[in-house]
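During the reporting period, our protein records have gained a structure token line. One record among many is quoted in full directly below:
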Amino acid sequence: RVPPPEDPAELAAWLDEGRIVPLQGEDLAAFAKPVLELAGRAPAARLAMLFSLPEELVSGWVEAFGEDEAGAVCRASNTEAPLFGRVNPLQTDMAALRAALASAGVIIRALGEDQPGAFVIEDGRADFTRTEPFRAGHFTIQDLTAQAAARAVAAEPGERILDLCAAPGGKTTALAEQSRDRAEI
């Protein structure tokens, strides 16, 4: 590996030569000699090879969005997704959870009133499973769409709720928390 050129035109030339390999996000690796055979490849084939994606998928993006936008979609698909969680209100609150996780080196950011109890792990995501709050059930890792689905039910104590998508149980536990653990789920 070598340092990538700083001049944008030279960087583009290196990319065309197969001497640049995109990594995650905007990161890239540069090499003294070509490591990818990109010469003469169609835009979709070139992007598919650069980003390790199926050519058929990238071809659809190129057709729908054009080469530049398809490249941005490819880059985004190789970017680590945010890791979202939800506070268990039967165990703690956002402020206490934030403090407990921070003391363990895990930094979270609450997402706001329109997504109550939701947060994103901003730092320390590799360590959250080792924390006491995780082991004690003070929070659950759950994507925002799953959290929204559970919120839409608005479970209340005394209700009977049938969860037909009950694996691994994230929405089920969210419904139990909403009903203060007093619904039949």
